[in-house]
Q: What sequence folds into this?
C-alpha cells in the first residue's frame, strides 16, 4: 500500500496514547472488536449512562471550563428525557428497536430491528470541535463504534472524551464505553491514511467547510457506506413588525445569545437579521440595533467572554466598521468583541463571523424565499401570528433552509439537523416476518 505518513494515535482502548504509529488498520481492528460488547447493551442503560455523563460534566469545574458556553446545550441534549425523545422521533416512535425486533404498527407478524451500521468515522471541524460530541453520542446510542479524526487543536476534545472514564452507572462503566471511541490525528497531506479510514467506514460523518467536505467526499468508500454531511451553512433571523414593536428588548437579548455562543462559527449562528418595516423611517430599527448592542455587551461581560481573535480577523472587523460608518450605522465595542451593523441593504450579508451581526429592513418577508438556496441552515422566526408563521415557513423553506426555530434557541442542537434525522441514518432497518 506504499509508505504511510505517520499519524498520531491520540486515544484508543480507553487509554491516552498520543504516540506516532504507522499502522492505522491495527487501531481500527481493535476498535471494531468492541462492536459485540456495545451491541449487547440495553438502549435504556446507554441512555442512563449519558444522562449521568451530562450531570458529571455540568458539575465538574475543569470540564465546565473546557466546554465553555456550549455546556448547557450539551447537558440538555444528554438528558434522559431528551435522548428518549430524539430516539423516538428518529426511529418511528419505537427506540426499543435498537435492542430487538419489534412491531412498528398493528401487524404483529412483521417485526423490525434497527441494527448498527458498524464503524462510524467522524471528521471533526477545527473551528467548533465541540459539536463533534453530538455525532459521537448519536453513534454510540445506535451502537456504532467511533473512529474520530480530530482537528489540529485537539487537546480540549481529547480531555472531554477521556473524562467519560470517570462516570459509571449500575450497568455501564465509563472506562468500558470509552474503548468504543478512538481518536486519531492525521496530517492533511497524509492521503494514504485518509483513504484507509474512508474505505473502512460503514458511516462517514463529516463536519467542516466547503474545501474540507469536498476533500472528504472525494475519498473512496464502500458502496453501502452512508454519508452524513454537516457542511458549510448560513443562518439568519426574521422578525415581523408586530413582534419588533411589542418585544424588541427581549428579542435583542435572545439574539445576542444566539450570536455569541459559538462566535458565529457554528452553522446555526445568525449573521443577518431581517426586520419587517413598512416605511422609510429607520428610527425603530435604530432603537432595536442599540438594544442588540447593549445585549451583546452584557453577554460578553457577564456570560460568554469572547476569546482573543487573530490580527487578520481584527482587521476584517475594523474594515467592516469603517465601510459601514459611511453607508450605514455601526454600534460596537471599543475593541473587536462585538459589532452590530444597521443598513438598508437587501439580501444576506456576507458573514464576517466573530460576533458581527447585520440588521436590515425588509418590506415583504415573502421576498426572502427568492434569495434562498440549499446552503441555508437555521432560520430564527419571530412572527406574532401562527398562521402567518406557518405560511412564511412553508414559502421560505421550499427553496432551502433546514430548520425554523425561535430566537434564543438557534444555537441548540436538535433533530432533525441539516434536513435529516442522523440517528435513522446510523442504523440499518431489518424486517422479520414471523409465523
A:
Amino acid at each position: 500500500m506504499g509508505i504511510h505518513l505517520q499519524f498520531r494515535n491520540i486515544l484508543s482502548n480507553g487509554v491516552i496514547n498520543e504516540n506516532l504509529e504507522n499502522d492505522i488498520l491495527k487501531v481500527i481492528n481493535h476498535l471494531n472488536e468492541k462492536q459485540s460488547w456495545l451491541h449487547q447493551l440495553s438502549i435504556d442503560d446507554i441512555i442512563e449512562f449519558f444522562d449521568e455523563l451530562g450531570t458529571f460534566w455540568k458539575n465538574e469545574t475543569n470540564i465546565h471550563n473546557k466546554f465553555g458556553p456550549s455546556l448547557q446545550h450539551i447537558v440538555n441534549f444528554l438528558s434522559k428525557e431528551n435522548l428518549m425523545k430524539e430516539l423516538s422521533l428518529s426511529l418511528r416512535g419505537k427506540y426499543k428497536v435498537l435492542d430487538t425486533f419489534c412491531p412498528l404498527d398493528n401487524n404483529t407478524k412483521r417485526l423490525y430491528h434497527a441494527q448498527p451500521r458498524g464503524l462510524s468515522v467522524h471528521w471533526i471541524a477545527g473551528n467548533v470541535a465541540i459539536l463533534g460530541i453530538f455525532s459521537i453520542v448519536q453513534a454510540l446510542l445506535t451502537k456504532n463504534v467511533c473512529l474520530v479524526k480530530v482537528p489540529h487543536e485537539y487537546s480540549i476534545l481529547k480531555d472531554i472524551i477521556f473524562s467519560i472514564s470517570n462516570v459509571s452507572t449500575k450497568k455501564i462503566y465509563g472506562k468500558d464505553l470509552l474503548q468504543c471511541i478512538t481518536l486519531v490525528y492525521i496530517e492533511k497531506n497524509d492521503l494514504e491514511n485518509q483513504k484507509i479510514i474512508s474505505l473502512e467506514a460503514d458511516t462517514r460523518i463529516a463536519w467542516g467547510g466547503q474545501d474540507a467536505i469536498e476533500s472528504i467526499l472525494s475519498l473512496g468508500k464502500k458502496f453501502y457506506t452512508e454519508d452524513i454531511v454537516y457542511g458549510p451553512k448560513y443562518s439568519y433571523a426574521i422578525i415581523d413588525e408586530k413582534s419588533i414593536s411589542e418585544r424588541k428588548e427581549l428579542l435583542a437579548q435572545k439574539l445576542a445569545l444566539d450570536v455569541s455562543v459559538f462566535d458565529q462559527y457554528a452553522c446555526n449562528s445568525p449573521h443577518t437579521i431581517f426586520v419587517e418595516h413598512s416605511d422609510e423611517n429607520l428610527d425603530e430599527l435604530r432603537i432595536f440595533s442599540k438594544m442588540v448592542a447593549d445585549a451583546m455587551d452584557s453577554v460578553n461581560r457577564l456570560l460568554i467572554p469572547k476569546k482573543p481573535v487573530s490580527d487578520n480577523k481584527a482587521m476584517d472587523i475594523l474594515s467592516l466598521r469603517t465601510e459601514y460608518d459611511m453607508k450605514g450605522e455601526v454600534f460596537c465595542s471599543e475593541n473587536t468583541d462585538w459589532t452590530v451593523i444597521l443598513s438598508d441593504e437587501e439580501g444576506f450579508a456576507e458573514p464576517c463571523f466573530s460576533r458581527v451581526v447585520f440588521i436590515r429592513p425588509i418590506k415583504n418577508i415573502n421576498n426572502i424565499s427568492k434569495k434562498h438556496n440549499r446552503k441555508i441552515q437555521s432560520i430564527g422566526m419571530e412572527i406574532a401570528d401562527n398562521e402567518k408563521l406557518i405560511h412564511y415557513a412553508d414559502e421560505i423553506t421550499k427553496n432551502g433552509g433546514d430548520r425554523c426555530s425561535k430566537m434564543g434557541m438557534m444555537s441548540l442542537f436538535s433533530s432533525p439537523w441539516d434536513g435529516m434525522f442522523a440517528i435513522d441514518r446510523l442504523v440499518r432497518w431489518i424486517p422479520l416476518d414471523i409465523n
Observations:
- The chain has a mean pLDDT of 92.
- The radius of gyration is 23 Å.
- The CA atoms of residues 88 and 95 lie 5 Å apart.
- DSSP finds 16 helices and 16 strands in the chain.
